[in-house]
Amino acid sequence: MTVIAQDQVERIGQHAQRQRVAVAMRDGVELAADVYWPTGERLDALGPHPVLLERSPYDVRAMRGSDGLHASGEPVSPESGAAYFVERGYVVVRQDCRGQGASGGAFSKYVNEADDGYDTHEWVAGQPWCDGRIVTHGVSYSAHTQAAAASVGARHLVAMIMDSGGFSSAFDAGGRFGGAFELKQAVWSMHRAEKQLGTGTVADIGAWFAALPWRRGFSPLTRAQDYEDFLFDQWSHEDLDEYWTQPGLYARGFYGSFPAVPVLNISSWYDPYVFTAVENFRELRRRHAGTALVLGPWTHGARSVSWAGDVDFGPAATLDGNLAPDYLAFKDRWLRSVHGVGPAEPAVRYFLMGGGSGRRNDAGRLDHGGRWCTSSDWPPPGAHPVDLHLGSDQSLHAAPPPSGALSYDFDPHDPVPSRGGGITSGEPLMRGGAFDQTGATGLPLSARHDVLTFQTEPLPEPVTVAGRVAVHLRFSSSAPDTDVAVKLVDVHPPTADHPHGYAMNITDGMLRCRHRDDPAHPTPLEPGRAYDLVVPMPDTANVFGAGHRIRLDVTSSNFPRCDVNPNTGGPVMGARTFTIARNTVHTGASFLRLDVLPVDVP
């Protein structure tokens, strides 16, 4: 162990102290890590303890809020979060990823985390103050680092807490979304470049996005070469190739290498990583029965607030004060449970949205309401698929209607604007969460000529959706390639606060049509030929109340969440020519499939 000379032992609160150390990787690059241990002890004389490890690219000494909020509403600092677990018998290690914070080397997003994570685990396990047991935890990128190390068989793991990340397949969600590139990667890179350069990069973000396509050397990231290289390299991989199937981006290909340990998977209905959490839960539970799943109503990692976007889910919505006193206590309780020193925890906790008044609350948000439920599995036992068929009168019906067709012209120069959903790292250009589905003009998005809307009559009684959501479309296009974007909407009836009703987005999905059969081997569409497509949406749980309508929107873009398909069949990145596609949904043969719970469940 090499102690960084300028960093002496620091007292952290009453019960912990900290020292920065250098951890050598296999290529000789040293990564900075903070080690926290009890006061009154020398690190080099400390006896063996279990270790709680977190790896982050966000400077572990500057991070705020990854461990939740204090009762005052202030973010928990990295120091107090570490001290909490030191008091409970752990040595805590928090490490800056390669090229970030105080660590050496060059940062390349995602791709170094498998080897660096494995090497860090080996180093930690070899220290005299480690008893050979490592627990990993962390939010977002820190969840990705955990899955990366586990994918290459990190052998000292005894438990993992992956919150809002840990890619099952970054091609499906997080890097791309149904094959379309998630432009949050560009916004994230611009924010990081601004932090590095201290320039007004993000202030110009709207102008830069209006100037797409970008070119290397002529982009908002040109002065931040590492970030420009990352973005263009990732964006250029348009199909499911070796880039997207490497450890750290594709747990799906490496579940057999994961240690057989309990994993707590956490996500939320307006987080990009619902697909990830659900798939990781399903697959890793096969390896350890203690694996668990928590699905809240929040945006990315925002577990301490009751709202997402312009919709409030009530005081029961937060993790803090509902599932546990706070996030730190929740993690501690789960770890005690899976290691047999606390009561058993439910396999699944999920927030069932709906049941609120539908009025505007004091903060100006729609009161949608909801409550926590528990289950032995996901989807909940008892949920069964229900098909709602698309009619040429733009209806949704339980019975298949006569065959018909509805067409729209999709112009890549005028994409449908993103309005909420599972978006993170998008501000100030786009926001995640639930919103009334209106555009910048104030008109409903459903008023656009290129949005097909299908909806039920007002429901005579509540319908509880909990589980999978997918659209099965018979679809044709005049173009050799185009996209299909779908959205499930809960249409609230008119009230005094919302005289035109409120069309609340619940979940949405995307498919780049060239990837309909095999995203690794794209095939063009034959213009005019009808294809049977399946467009999955991230799982959800929502009560569509009596008097509400279930609505499905179908279009071909979701910008700036995703890049826009030029409809030419050629590469999307850097495309300078565009074609208007006439896209057709063949009704009668198309349907929305929902997992629905019986009225008396849960």
Structural class: alpha+beta
Helical content (DSSP H or I, runs of 4+): 10-25%
Shape: globular
C-alpha Rg (nearest Å): 24 Å
The averaged pLDDT comes out at: 95
Q: Termini separation (Å)? A: 53 Å
Biggest sheet features: 12 strands, mixed
- SS elements, strand count: 28
- Which spans of ≥5 residues are poorly predicted at pLDDT below 50? 1-6
Number of helices: 8
Assess the beta-strand content as a share of residues. 25-35%
Brief summary:
Helix content is 15%, strand content 30%. The chain has helices spanning 78-86, 113-125, 141-151, 184-197, 205-210, 225-236, 274-285, 327-338; strands at 2-3, 10-12, 16-24, 30-38, 49-56, 91-96, 130-139, 157-163, 176-177, 180-181, 263-270, 292-299, 307-308, 311-312, 348-353, 366-367, 370-375, 384-390, 396-397, 404-410, 452-455, 463-477, 483-492, 502-512, 531-544, 549-555, 581-587, 591-597.
Strand and helix map with partners:
Elements: E1 2-3, E2 10-12, E3 16-24, E4 30-38, E5 49-56, H1 78-86, E6 91-96, H2 113-125, E7 130-139, H3 141-151, E8 157-163, E9 176-177, E10 180-181, H4 184-197, H5 205-210, H6 225-236, E11 263-270, H7 274-285, E12 292-299, E13 307-308, E14 311-312, H8 327-338, E15 348-353, E16 366-367, E17 370-375, E18 384-390, E19 396-397, E20 404-410, E21 452-455, E22 463-477, E23 483-492, E24 502-512, E25 531-544, E26 549-555, E27 581-587, E28 591-597
Parallel strand pairs: 5-6, 5-7, 7-8, 8-11, 11-12, 12-15, 14-16
Antiparallel strand pairs: 1-3, 2-3, 3-4, 4-6, 9-10, 13-14, 15-17, 18-19, 18-28, 20-27, 21-26, 22-25, 22-27, 22-28, 23-24, 23-26
Helix pairs in contact: 2-3, 4-6
